[in-house]
Amino acid sequence: MQIAEVNNPQLAWDFLEVNAMMNAGNANYIRALNNEVNEVFDPAKNKNFKWGKAKRWVAFADNGEPIGRVAAFTNEKYINKGTEFKTGGVGFFDCINDQATANVLFDTAKEWLISEGMEAMDGPINFGDRDKWWGLMVEGFEQAPMYGMSYNPSYYKALFEGYGFKNYYNQYYYYMNVDDPLPEKFPERYEKFNAKPGYAVKHIKLQNLEKYAGDFATVYNAAWAQHGEAKEITKEQVVKLFKKMKPIMDERVVWFAYYKEDPIAMFINIPDLNQYFKHFNGEFGLLQKLQLLWMKWRGTNKRLTGLAFGVVPKYQALGVDSYLIYAAGLQLQGKGWYLQYEMGWAGDWNPKMVNIYKSLGGKQSRQMVTFRYIFDEKYPFERHPEMDYK
After folding, report:
1. Omega of the bond leading into 124 within 30 degrees of 0 (cis)
2. What are phi and psi of 234, to 5 degrees?
3. How far apart are CA 197 and CA 352, in angstroms?
């Protein structure tokens, strides 16, 4: 067996192909877009290179056949509460069902991370935000993955644990039908806030994305960035993101709540892009873009996925979440536009978000795991601390 660092176009292609090879024959597998994976490792496209580095490798059998891959990352912005040591990441792991091959891949990543001053590695994670390719699937293989969701053969869990990785935290996805009735407290809270002066809910208008980008940044930074689980985001960054998403956004499924014009909560959803991408086999050229627009115009995509949800701390525990979600339900339910809804993942360290998903009547549909491997035993392993809501 040989390990080759990806440093030319052929190896970059091999890196993409390994993922498809390891999932060959699985009818539920949907290949990620090649250009989106490549952009993770492109300093001109991935802003995280400002704060870190990335390397990737492909493993080959003696006959030259690719049999595995792995990537490793450093990122000074990657900080978890309660962690006192420098932690890098591994991701984009694929491997034949052979512990020895997996060990060589993990060792390669570990040695490079140590050379970069890291003292532990989490994985599988992404060299970027947590909305894509984060965690290892351990439950939910019987259905196709949503856009951005990791998907892997079931034996990968044994390969991680066999190397010595430990469960740092679980990630849970919840599912419901769009037309499922919401609990009684939701309309009650909706009516309560509707009767209060100053409160309002509305979905976005695509022609005014800059305004909503600012609202997104306000809620996101208040609800998430202050907890140490995410870095602050600027309005300019969100504008760029929204403009990139605009061709596939549906303004009817992106909602904000306000108090006296100040944004206090957001409920951000998008159509499940994998319902389009499953036809493209990783490609996304002009032909695929035209095909996507045609499918969007015809309304063939009946699945929604959650992208972000948050309430400004001052307004938490008041029922604003129910107010916002019920308003969206009044717009969407019974229309036939969408039939299924799968919410974005919630970590077991965030019980409040898990309870929100459960309060909707959501049923757990998948489980991912983010693992941790500590290089030096002087640092005891501890699971991710529960989120501090103060």
Report:
1. yes
2. -95, 160
3. 27
**Which residues constitute the domain of residue 124?**
2-170
User: Percentage of residues in the chain with pLDDT exceeding 90?
Assistant: 81
Q: For 100-114, 319-333, 342-356, which range has the lowest pLDDT when averaged over its residues? A: 342-356
Structure tokens at 240: 């760029």
Q: What is the pLDDT of residues 294-336, one digit of tens each?
A: 999 999 999 999 888 889 999 988 999 999 999 999 999 999 9
- Strand 120-123 vs strand 87-95: parallel, antiparallel, or unpaired? parallel
DSSP string, 96-127: -S-HHHHHHHHHHHHHHHHHTT-SEEEES--S
220 and 292 share a domain? yes
Q: How many domains does the chain have?
A: 2
Copy the structure tokens of residue 118: 């890291």
Asked if residue 190 and residue 160 are part of one domain, the reply reads no
264 contact partners, CB below 8 Å, separation of at least 6: 219, 257, 258, 311, 312, 314, 315, 320
- Check whether residue 152 and residue 197 sit in a common domain: no
Number of H helices, E strands in the chain: 11, 14
Same domain, 317 and 217: yes
Please state, in angstroms and rounded to a whole number, the distance separating the CA atoms of residues 186 and 145: 29
Give the global pTM. 0.89
In a domain, 373, yes or no: no
Q: Which two tokens stand for residue 37?
A: 């994976």
* C-alpha to C-alpha distance for 74 and 49, rounded to whole angstroms: 9
Say which residues have a Cβ less than 8 Å from residue 160's Cβ, sequence separation at least 6.
102, 123, 136, 371
Residues 192 and 328 in one domain: yes
